Task: inverse folding
């Protein structure tokens, strides 16, 4: 259960006291952190690269925009921190810290090299594609096992480390499923249209909608093009894909991309099992 009781009276008072500017300057200090540059500006938050001057490591520092800091907003951020703090998996970006510093709510994590979106601007070999896809599905399978639906699977939310490891991040709009019922904890907020399953766009997210988003992203990584509405099979780029991929891998993608949720994999765990089988066949065929 996510405690909503922490809602925020005290917190929002603390936060608004310093709310004049939540835009940080380069070289500005925030507790033990020294700001180096802004990495991203999202709808809800700014993300900065900063140096942890005590530990001597670089971090990503995520901070809500000040004008958005309402009790509701803080609940959302705190929820994200609590969700991620419970997860422990090599392919999920761990939280380093979540706290109030000088009245600002900040979530910090170890700095990644780039996002999968950055990586996809360059050519991806077939073998690297398989490796990235496996890491992504493994992360989501672990989240599903813990009854968490990510709801915002896209390349911008996957961080790559220098050693090639992929880590899933941004559980900002994730949902907690109770048995088969999806309990919507926050009413607003939505996944990104480009990777969103049709039924999620209608307000019905589930583990199966995460499967669809992973199907889209896997297809994009392998074929270089993102399938588009109305998601008729075969999508653009199919001829290229067919030359490289074993039929089992193509069948796996097709099943993940079924329009009807109940014809897809039940969750990422099932998708991962199918993917691993298909991957073995792909590698055997290219040897
Ligand atoms: N640990 C990190 N290392 C490098 N870049 C990061 C890290 N965390 C976030 N980012 C960058 O900041 C962006 C926004 O962060 P995210 O957690 O997805 O917040 P939002 O809810 O605003 O999308 C990411 O797409 C990525 O470019
Ligand atoms: Mg994001």
Result:
């Amino acid at each position: 259960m996510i405690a909503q009781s922490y809602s925020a009276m005290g917190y929002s008072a603390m936060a608004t006291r310093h709310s004049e500017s939540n835009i940080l300057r380069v070289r500005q200090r925030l507790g033990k952190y020294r700001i180096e540059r802004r990495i991203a500006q999202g709808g809800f938050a700014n993300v900065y690269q900063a140096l942890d001057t005590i530990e001597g490591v670089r971090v990503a520092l995520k901070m809500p925009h000040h004008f958005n800091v309402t009790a509701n907003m803080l609940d959302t951020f705190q929820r994200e921190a609590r969700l991620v703090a419970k997860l422990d998996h090599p392919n999920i970006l761990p939280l380093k810290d979540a706290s109030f510093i000088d009245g600002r709510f900040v979530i910090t994590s170890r700095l990644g090299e780039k996002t999968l979106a950055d990586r996809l601007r360059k050519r991806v070999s077939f073998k690297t594609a398989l490796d990235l896809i496996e890491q992504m599905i493994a992360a989501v399978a672990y989240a599903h096992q813990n009854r968490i639906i990510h709801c915002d699977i896209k390349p911008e939310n996957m961080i790559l480390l220098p050693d090639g490891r992929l880590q899933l991040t941004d559980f900002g709009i994730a949902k907690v499923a109770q048995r088969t019922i999806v309990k919507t904890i926050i009413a607003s907020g939505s996944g990104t249209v480009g990777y969103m399953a049709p039924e999620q766009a209608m307000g019905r997210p589930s583990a199966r909608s995460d499967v669809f988003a992973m199907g889209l992203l896997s297809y994009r990584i392998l074929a270089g093009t993102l399938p588009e509405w109305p998601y008729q099979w075969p999508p653009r780029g199919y001829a290229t894909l067919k030359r490289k991929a074993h039929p089992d891998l193509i069948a796996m993608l097709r099943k993940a991309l079924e329009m009807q949720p109940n014809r897809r994999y039940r969750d990422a765990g099932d998708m991962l099992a199918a993917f691993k089988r298909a991957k073995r066949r792909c590698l055997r065929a290219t040897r």
User: Anything to note?
Assistant: Confidence is low (pLDDT under 50) at residues 1-20, 179-189. The longest helix spans residues 126-145. The chain has two domains: 7-110, 114-285. The CA atoms of residues 246 and 282 lie 5 Å apart.
